[in-house]
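Input record (Table S2, row 219):
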Amino acid sequence: MTQDELKALVGQAALAYVQPGTVVGVGTGSTVNCFIDALATMKDRIAGAVSSSEKSTQRLQSHGIVVLDSNSVERIPAYIDGADEIDHGGHMIKGGGAALTREKIVADLADRFICIADESKLVTTLGRFPLPVEVVPMATSQVSRRFAALGGNAVLREGVITDNGGCILDVHGLSITDPLGMEQEVNQWPGVVAVGIFARHRARVCLLGTSQGVKTLSF
Ligand code: 5RP
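Output record (ribulose-5-phosphate complex):
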């Protein structure tokens, strides 16, 4: 099976985690696009969606799915999103699509994070994928120096401004053995809007697309 076929498979499988009559949290990325397309088949049975990016909002609306303002929603049962890496504890690196801050906000509204990914995303230790960090523009050098002190090489993602007006640093060369500790540490650095480590908001379920079909991992 191709990677695109695996993404379509897990996008479809995620429908089982959408509770009819409720609002569903929707992430961002090519795997989530498959989920959005599948969600369209049950759009009349959900109360709407809370979206994590302008791109996902556009796709949801193009299917006629109602997108709600996150400020109008107090709790959602499930947040469905992809990942750039996921480890065997459900900790993730996210932000390849520059939507990490809003993804974390919507994940925080949810009772459960359901990760959808193809098997190439499953790793033993996070960090081979460069860690995305959203930063206020005036702090990019300062934050880069802090990463250098930890052995990381932060590279500004050229030409990218997030939906919130921030910049993205991609940090190469980290081996993230303590995802929760590193997330907490980086979150405290002035100028950091959000770090793409999802440990506090880790996945509770991962639907992993494999050549043998969808494998369900629970954490
Ligand atoms: C976007 C994300 C995505 O979930 C992540 O980049 C995975 O994307 P894809 O499904 O296209 O591989 O974090 O900010």
